[in-house]
Amino acid sequence: MTSTLEFISRRSPIVCTGGCVATSQPLATQIGLDILKKGGNAADAAVAVAAALNVTEPTGTGIGGDCFCLFYKAGAKKVYGLNGSGRCPAALSLELLKQQGFDEENPLPPTHAYNVTVPGAAAAWVDTVSLFGSRKMSLKEILQPAIELAESGFPVSEVTAFQWNIAVDKLHTLNNKFGADLLINGQSPQHGQLFRNPSLANTFKALANQGKKGFYEGWIAQAIVQTVQSNGGLLDIIDLTNHMTEEVQPIFTTYKGVKVWEIPPNSQGIIVLMALNMLESFPVKELGHNSADYVHAVTEVLKLGTADCHWYCADSAIVRVPTEELLSKVYGTKQVKHIDIKRASEAYNHGSPFEMGSDTVYFTVVDVHGNACSFINSNYMDFGTGLVPEGCGFTLQNRGNNFSLSPGHPNCLAPGKRPFHTIIPAMATNADTEDLLCSFGVMGGFMQPQGHIQVLLNMIEFGMNPQHAVDAPRFYVEYIKKDQKWHLYLEDGFPGSVAEDLKARGHLVHWPITGHDRKLFGRGQIITKGDWWRSSKIFSDTSKVWWAGSDPRGDGCAMGYCSVNIC
């Protein structure tokens, strides 16, 4: 299969006045719209989309993984949060791993069954509907489109087919008896080939008919435990039956009149907020979009935020996370003093906030009532562990790979503990009125907070519409532990002069990143309420309009419809 992925089409932002859905897969987008048109709200449609994407993009997402959700309730002008991440098995400990020769210097293989944490998505789907749904549609009605899609089959999209092929070896492992359920005659499906998953349809039926018990008890739970334990893992039935979704208070900061919302730790969304606090010290707009000065400033800010997050971000139910101190504007100003505008930093050190007293799908849905749901669901690394429970049609995540195996680390592995999490949904509201400005996200491992920052700044500082904001070339900075260096990746679209300037400042630059390698920069979706990002207002009634963009790095699209009372 070729690695070439050409960007040969242009997109305009979708504009509508009724409901709107933006996902990484057109069939899932259509399913979300259908739910809205049947009377469901943004939460109902989001869960329908989550299930549909499990069918159409099983490499990156599924009911065997975790999810997070932000929900904006228009009537209350309030943002709510759900933490749908699972916990470490109660029988797994650092001591046991040490006895088997695993530690920080000799970590577990990423696909080891020890890395299977409790799948949190199923419970969070149910809780999203029960807490935020319209109450006009049952869970069975919401999951039915995905059930039909899995039973009848769908043609596989181009990017998904490419990623399926890359990760196919996980499904072929000797002990993974049911990996073949996600293959066609032992092979990954090709672009345009029809794929059916009746086993996944049966899993969804159990959840639809029995709720959370249908997943965390009974035959599905037994199949999960059997698969994990037969592959050397320790997850058991008690771990599953004890699982609960956590309602959380979203965290935020303000940047130039915009209040940006993220899920609190154990999620890495706090990087976005710390970075925005530091960027207030820079004349961002004057630096120029994607100029060497701009990329340098944002990169250095992200290095500091990432280093802090990768030390302090952990399960706040187990360890104390200094969220308030890390989000202090005073701390942000202090951290900026470590930045040399002419030279790239080489260190990877977390700060000391106490002195003041670091694969997935993302999608978003809005409804005619003004509610919005920002939702992200993940297996972690391409099919996660790749392990498929008998008769279930999904793979189990490997989110436990994000634990530290160092005993003194806040994020060290412990029984019943949630690991550090990369996946982050986001929202933005008007800091004065709390009116919704946008629901957005960028999936893709440690790129996610960096994508949030770049898409936001594209709109706030440079006046880009939602589609332009996700189209623009991105950059990504990553600390590689193996060589103890920061690496800076520039997407195709940056001029060579910018790459050379950044090299001269000491950045280890990789440029240009092209084709399917653009996966490194994630895939985003965004829906805005009105055109607040415009520098000048031309029309008086634009606040009634939804604007949406979908990332060209994926297979997806945004779609909407008009309310009969407006259009």
Keywords:
567 residues, alpha+beta, seven-stranded antiparallel β-sheet, 19 strands, 18% strand, globular
Strand order of the largest sheet: 1-18-17-13-12-9-8
Radius of gyration: 22 Å
Helix content: 25-40%
Mean pLDDT: 94
Q: Helical element count?
A: 18
Main sheet properties? 7 strands, antiparallel
Rounded to the nearest angstrom, the distance between the terminal CA atoms is 45 Å
Q: What amount of the residues lies in strands?
A: 15-25%
Taken from the alpha-carbon principal axes, the silhouette is globular
State the low-pLDDT regions, or none.
Answer: 354-358
Class based on secondary structure composition and strand pairing: alpha+beta
Q: How many distinct folded domains?
A: 2
How many β-strand stretches?
Answer: 19
Topology:
Layout: E1 14-16, E2 20-23, H1 26-37, H2 42-56, E3 66-73, E4 78-84, H3 94-99, H4 121-132, H5 139-152, E5 154-155, H6 158-166, E6 194-195, H7 198-210, H8 213-216, H9 218-230, H10 237-241, E7 246-248, E8 251-255, E9 258-262, H11 270-279, H12 284-287, H13 292-312, H14 323-326, H15 329-336, E10 360-366, E11 372-378, E12 426-430, E13 436-443, H16 448-460, H17 466-471, E14 475-480, E15 485-491, H18 496-504, E16 508-513, E17 523-529, E18 546-550, E19 557-560
Parallel strand pairs: 15-16
Antiparallel strand pairs: 1-18, 2-10, 2-19, 3-4, 3-11, 4-7, 5-6, 8-9, 9-12, 10-11, 12-13, 13-17, 14-15, 17-18
Helix pairs in contact: 1-2, 2-4, 2-5, 5-7, 11-13, 11-15, 11-16, 13-18
